[in-house]
Design goal:
This protein is an alpha/beta fold and about 450 residues long. It contains 26 helices and 9 strands. Bound molecules: iron/sulfur cluster (SF4) (2 copies). One iron/sulfur cluster binds near residues 89 and 91. One iron/sulfur cluster binds near residues 86 and 88. Component of a complex that catalyzes the oxidation of glycolate to glyoxylate.
C-alpha cells in the first residue's frame, strides 16, 4: 500500500529520518494478523471524527508495518496519526481476527516518545502533565492558586473572554475540565485499616488513584463503605502512589515502570486477597503490570502476582455478591443511564457487572444509550492533548446519554466523569454524574438523592 505523508513545516520531521529502534518495536507477527478487512473502522472514534484511513486502526497498522520495514520515517507526518488514537481499544473488541492492537499501539507509543523529537510547546505541555498528574502531593501544591482562581471568580471571567483558547487551546482544554477544588481536595481522610462490618469475608487492598484521590474523594470513601458493608476488611497503604496508567498510555516507559514497582512494594506486606480499584483506566493498567515489568528480573514475578489480585470494584462485588441490604434512592422510579468507560468495556471486558449491581438497587430503571461502546473523548489526557477531536466525541456522547431520558448518569472513571460534566454544562444541562459505588453507598445507607 502507498503511504501518503502530509506536508509539514515542522523542522523535526525534516531532520528525523529514523524509524523504530530495536527495543520492543510493534511485533511483526501481531501486525501480520491484520487482514485489512476494515470491520474496525466504524467503531473507531478517531476515524469517525477525522475520517482519514491513517487515523483508523487499519491505517495505523499499515504505518507501523512501514516503519518496521524502514519504508517511512518516524516524523510529524506519521506521529500525528498515532497521537490521534484515543487508545480506547474499541478496535480490539470489534476485530474478528483478534488483532491485538492494544499491544501494537502501546509498543508504538513508547517508540514515539523515545525516538521522535516533539516541538518545544508539545514537550512543555506533556512535561507539565507527567510531572503533575502522577504526583498527587505535587498536584495538591499546584492546586492552591487554582483554588483561589476558582473562588475569586477569575475562572468564569477567563472562560467568558475565550482568551485562553486563543493563547493555547490545550491549556484552555485543561482549564475547561478542571473540577471544583474544595478543601477536601487537600485532605486524605481514610485510615490505613478499616474493619469489615459483620462477618469478615475478605481482606482487600484499595487503590486511591491520583485524580480520584484529589477530585473525587467521596467516590473513594463510598467505595470503602460499600466494601466494608459487604464484609471486607479494607487496607489502604499510605505509601501507594500513582498506578502508572497515565505515563504507560503515553509511552513514558521508565516513569511507568518506576511507578508500577512502587505500587507493588506498597502492597508487599499487606497480605490481601484482592487489590480493588474503582477507576477504569487505572484498573486496566494495574492488570497489565506483568507486561510492563516483563523485562525486570527482580519484579517480573511480583508484577504477575500483583496483577492477578487486581479487581475492578464492580467486577469484584458482582462476583462475590452483595450482602448489604439496598434501599431505593428516590421515592419514584429512577431512570439511570450507565456510561461504559472504554478501559472497563474494551480493556477489561467489564460491562454486565456494573449494570447487574445498579439494577439491584430498588426502583432503578436502567437505560441504554446509542453508541454505548464509543469513547467519550476523555481517554486519559487525550482531551487535553487533542481537544478538537475530544470535544466532538464529548458532545456526541452527552447527546446520546441525554436522549435516553435518564435523570442521572453513572460513570466509573474519573476522566469520563469530568469530560461528560464539561459537555453537560456546555449543553446547559444540570444532570448529576455519579460513580456506581456512590449510588450503592447511598442505597446501603438509605440516603435519598
Ligand atoms: S484490525 Fe482487525 S478489524 Fe481492523 S482491519 Fe485489521 S483485521 Fe480487520
Ligand atoms: S484504540 Fe480506539 S481510537 Fe485507537 S485505533 Fe482503536 S478504536 Fe481507534
Amino acid at each position: 500500500m502507498q503511504i501518503s505523508e502530509d506536508s509539514t513545516n515542522n523542522t523535526a520531521s525534516i531532520k528525523n529520518l529514523q524509524g523504530f529502534d530495536a527495543n520492543h518495536p510493534p511485533d511483526p507477527k501481531l501486525i501480520d494478523s491484520c487482514v485489512h478487512c476494515g470491520f474496525c473502522l466504524s467503531t473507531c472514534p478517531s476515524y469517525r471524527v477525522i475520517g482519514k484511513e491513517m487515523d483508523s486502526p487499519r491505517g495505523r497498522i499499515y504505518l507501523m508495518d512501514a516503519l518496521n520495514e524502514g519504508e517511512i520515517a518516524l516524523n510529524t507526518a506519521t506521529v500525528q496519526h498515532f497521537d490521534s488514537c484515543l487508545g480506547c481499544l474499541a478496535c480490539v473488541t470489534t476485530c474478528p481476527s483478534g488483532v491485538q492492537y492494544d499491544k501494537l499501539i502501546s509498543a508504538t507509543r513508547h517508540q514515539v516518545e523515545r525516538n521522535y523529537p516533539r516541538s518545544l510547546s508539545d514537550k512543555l505541555v506533556r512535561q507539565l502533565i507527567f510531572s503533575l498528574f502522577p504526583n498527587p502531593d505535587i498536584l495538591r501544591i499546584f492546586l492552591i492558586p487554582l483554588f483561589f482562581y476558582q473562588k475569586l471568580g477569575i475562572s468564569q471571567a477567563i472562560r467568558a473572554t475565550g482568551l485562553l483558547k486563543i493563547i493555547s487551546p490545550r491549556l484552555a482544554a485543561m482549564e475547561s475540565i478542571l473540577p471544583k477544588i474544595t478543601l477536601k481536595t487537600f485532605q486524605d481522610n481514610l485510615p490505613t485499616i478499616i474493619s469489615a462490618q459483620g462477618e469478615k469475608r475478605y481482606r482487600v487492598g484499595v487503590i486511591l488513584g491520583c485524580v480520584q484521590r484529589l477530585f473525587f474523594s467521596p467516590v473513594n470513601e463510598a467505595t470503602v463503605r460499600v466494601l466494608t458493608a459487604n464484609g471486607c476488611e479494607v487496607v489502604i497503604p499510605k505509601s501507594q502512589g500513582c498506578c502508572a496508567a497515565l505515563p504507560e498510555h503515553q509511552g513514558q516507559t521508565e516513569q511507568a515502570k518506576a511507578l508500577a514497582r512502587q505500587m507493588i512494594d506498597s502492597f508487599a506486606d499487606t497480605n490481601v486477597d484482592y487489590v480493588i480499584i474503582n477507576a477504569a483506566g487505572c484498573g486496566h493498567t494495574l492488570k497489565e503490570y506483568g507486561h510492563i515489568l516483563a523485562d525486570d528480573p527482580e519484579y517480573r514475578e511480583k508484577a504477575k502476582n500483583f496483577a492477578a489480585k487486581v479487581r475492578d470494584a464492580q467486577e469484584f462485588l458482582a462476583t462475590v455478591g452483595l450482602t448489604a441490604k439496598l434501599s431505593p434512592l428516590t421515592d419514584k422510579p429512577l431512570n439511570l443511564v450507565y456510561q461504559d468507560a472504554c478501559h472497563l468495556l474494551h480493556g477489561q471486558k467489564i460491562s454486565l457487572q456494573p449494570r447487574q449491581l445498579l439494577q439491584q438497587i430498588p426502583g432503578v430503571k436502567l437505560k441504554e444509550p446509542l453508541d454505548a461502546a464509543l469513547c467519550c473523548g476523555s481517554a486519559g489526557v487525550y482531551n487535553m492533548l487533542q481537544p478538537d477531536v475530544a470535544d466532538e466525541l464529548g458532545q456526541q456522547k452527552v447527546t446520546n446519554l441525554l436522549n435516553t431520558g435518564a435523570e442521572l448518569i453513572a460513570s466509573a472513571n474519573p476522566g469520563c466523569a469530568l469530560q461528560i460534566t464539561k459537555h453537560l454544562q456546555l449543553q446547559g444541562k444540570e444532570i448529576s454524574v455519579m460513580h456506581p459505588m456512590e449510588l450503592l453507598d447511598y442505597s446501603i445507607r438509605g440516603v435519598k438523592l
